[in-house]
């Protein structure tokens, strides 16, 4: 489907194309293709998610939230993460940390490493959920174990500093290296400073 090649997310395990960064989506083409795909295959949540991405690329977050919401309600984890992100920022919807955490948790429990990291950050700061360092570290660890560079970096910082976890500089260094090998700039900077 053209919708896949024009608006798939690299973070979506259900994608049928390599994925397009949101700032590289051509909104008019992607909206038309994804609306057609959603109409032809109404049971496929992925097309609703990709339609949401196309509307987000067109700077219409309120419409993006609608389509993310429809895909999220159908259990599509990347759509749940995207909807949570909009609630966290108050972009296209009323800002609501509790609602953001609720959507992040749904996606995190399905194994979405982006949602796991965002939920971990919410637990670390006490936004939308109780502040809970142990829960934050658990979510960071789950995402890091999947190879998600931002989580590897965040967990490495905690291990290096001994924040809520036993200090382990060797493990921290290994995680910095893994994140840096993926091109994650903060990890590269941390390694260069050592």
Would you give an account of this structure?
The chain has 194 residues and is mainly alpha-helical. The chain has two domains: 1-95, Serine Threonine Protein Phosphatase 5, Tetratricopeptide repeat, CATH 1.25.40; 114-194, Serine Threonine Protein Phosphatase 5, Tetratricopeptide repeat. The protein has eleven helices and no strands. Helix 4 packs across helix 5 (77-89), helix 5 (77-89) runs antiparallel to helix 6 and helix 10 crosses helix 11. The mean pLDDT is 97.
Strand content: under 5%
CATH-assigned fold name of the largest domain: Serine Threonine Protein Phosphatase 5, Tetratricopeptide repeat
Number of domains: 2
The radius of gyration is: 18 Å
What is the count of β-strands? 0
What's the architecture of the largest domain, going by CATH? Answer: Alpha Horseshoe
The coarse silhouette is globular
Order of helices and strands: HHHHHHHHHHH
Major pleated sheet: none
* Low-pLDDT segments: none
CATH class of the largest domain: Mainly Alpha
Q: How confident overall, as mean pLDDT?
A: 97
Tally of helical runs: 11
What separation lies between the terminal Cα atoms? 47 Å
Task: Report helical residue fraction.
Answer: 55-70%
What structural class do the secondary elements suggest?
A: mainly alpha
């Amino acid at each position: 489907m053209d919708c896949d090649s024009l608006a798939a997310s690299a973070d979506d395990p259900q994608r049928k194309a390599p994925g397009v960064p949101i700032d590289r989506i051509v909104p008019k083409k992607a909206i038309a293709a994804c609306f057609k795909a959603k109409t032809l295959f109404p049971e496929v949540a992925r097309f609703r998610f990709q339609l949401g991405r196309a509307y987000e690329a067109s700077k219409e977050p309120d419409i993006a939230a609608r389509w993310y919401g429809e895909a999220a309600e159908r259990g599509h984890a990347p759509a749940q993460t995207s909807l949570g992100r909009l609630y966290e920022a108050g972009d296209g919807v009323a800002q609501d940390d509790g609602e953001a955490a609720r959507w992040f948790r749904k996606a995190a429990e399905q194994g979405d490493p982006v949602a796991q990291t965002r939920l971990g950050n919410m637990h670390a700061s006490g936004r939308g959920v109780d502040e809970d360092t142990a829960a934050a570290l658990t979510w960071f660890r789950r995402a890091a174990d999947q190879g998600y560079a931002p989580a590897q970096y965040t967990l490495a910082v905690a291990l290096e500093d001994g924040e809520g976890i036993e200090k382990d500089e060797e493990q921290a260094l290994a995680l910095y290296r893994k994140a840096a090998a993926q091109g994650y700039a903060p990890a590269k900077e941390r390694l260069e400073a050592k």
